[in-house]
Design brief:
CATH superfamily: Nucleoside phosphorylase domain
CATH topology: Rossmann fold
Shape: globular
Structural class: alpha/beta
Number of helices: 7
Strand content: 25-35%
Largest sheet: 11 strands, mixed
Number of strands: 11
Radius of gyration: 17 Å
CATH class: Alpha Beta
Low-confidence stretches: 188-200
Mean pLDDT: 86
Number of domains: 1
Length: 244
């Protein structure tokens, strides 16, 4: 890996979150470390490194630590999609929380370096929060406006390294939206062959799943572009800060 610093190290969970952002990069180089693929390039004038880590806290923490060790970023970013818990957050909205916490009442929140104060809290859990009832219950228990499966782990890794952390998320499903029951199987860690088998089994059990999956994919492509635009803006601001 490189010995020079990067302005930011960005952790994505799944490829669709990173694809539009990667297309915005120039001078991209790719490298392998510890079984993960890392990318470096210039975005918005800033040198950045990023990785698609996989879903969940363990994968995100590992990728964030490797980014810190190998790319020496000044900032760590947890980027991707999230579920809305606050009914006022529309699907497709970009959010940047100011705090992250875990689901347990004993979980101590960690501050995030949000672009503006008053960004609310994001809660990181180890499962998909699929239904409006589950989302309302989680919001009441934690006071969070947004839920994801990675930000807390990324923030903890950044804190260990003495680095600031930001979380930039696009609301992929609003508080009132219900995700298809099969979505959990698709994001579980597994080989491409097993994921294909899960899809075929899903279609056999529930033919409507094909339409659900197509709609999810279409929305994810749009959300990926929205996320990319927010990250490009962030990278541009890092370039401005470096020249002050």
């Amino acid at each position: 890996m490189t010995t020079d610093y990067s302005a930011a190290g960005i952790v994505f969970a799944v490829p669709i979150e990173a694809e539009a952002f990667a297309r915005a990069a120039t001078d991209e180089v790719e490298m392998e470390a510890a079984g993960l693929t890392f990318h470096e390039g210039r975005v918005g004038g800033a040198r950045v490194a990023w990785c698609v880590a996989g879903v969940g806290q363990e994968a995100a923490r590992r990728a964030a630590r490797l980014l810190v060790d190998g790319h020496r970023p000044r900032l760590i970013v947890s980027a991707g999609f999230a579920g809305g818990l606050d009914p006022t957050l529309a699907r497709g909205a970009v959010v940047e929380p100011a705090l992250v916490r875990g689901e347990l009442p004993t979980s101590e929140p960690l501050p995030l370096a949000a672009a503006a104060p008053g960004g609310g809290a994001i809660v990181t859990v180890d499962r998909i929060v699929r239904t409006p009832t589950e989302k309302a219950s989680l919001a009441a228990a934690t006071g969070a406006a947004v839920v994801d499966m990675e930000t807390l782990a990324v923030a903890e890794a950044a804190h260990e390294a003495g680095l600031p952390c930001r979380s930039i998320r696009v609301i992929s499903d609003a508080a009132g939206d219900e995700l298809p029951p099969d979505v959990t199987r698709l994001i579980a860690p597994q080989s491409a062959m097993r994921r294909a088998g899960a899809v075929l089994g899903m279609l056999g059990r529930r033919p409507r799943a094909a339409l659900d999956l197509w709609q999810l994919w279409e929305r994810a492509v749009v959300d990926g572009r929205t996320l990319s635009a927010a990250l490009v803006t962030l990278c541009g601001s890092l370039t401005d800060e470096a020249h002050r």
